[in-house]
Structure prediction request, 177 residues.
Amino acid sequence: MSSQNQTMEIRSSQDQPKFVPAGTGRALFGPGTRMTFLITGEETGGAFFMSESLIAPGGGPPPHVHSREDESFYLQQGTLVIRVGDQVLNASAGDFVYLPRGIAHSFRNVSNETARLLSVSTPAGLEHYFEEVFLPADDIADTAGIPQIDDAMIARVIQASPKYGLELSLPTPRTAE
Prediction:
């Protein structure tokens, strides 16, 4: 093995360029969302995490607060209603939103089409929350099979949120009548 190959083997992934062809990347399903990891904190030295999310009509997270990271969203397709504190923002394709940590926020796809959103979390680390709470997407390429919130997902969210500095307002679990 040449010394150049040895050097390449010991370099961390944060020193390497990364190319993620369209339609590839590790994908997970959350409530009304298919999230594809584009680059993680492991690959950026902890600087940031970036993902692309497909949000089904009616999909989006409940109100929540991040204590550790800021979030930035760039809406590529669709229409979202974004609640930030007491403000309501109507976002459409091409709009950008920056959400500093400590501010309650949520969003909902209010259109009949799938929304496409690029998201950056700074610093990185939030990707580990998604790995713990969401489900592997495997070979499902669209939002048709995206799971909605169920009691098992709520249980995972309740368990994982404090570890990642998240405070969420969750729906009340359904009870048998």
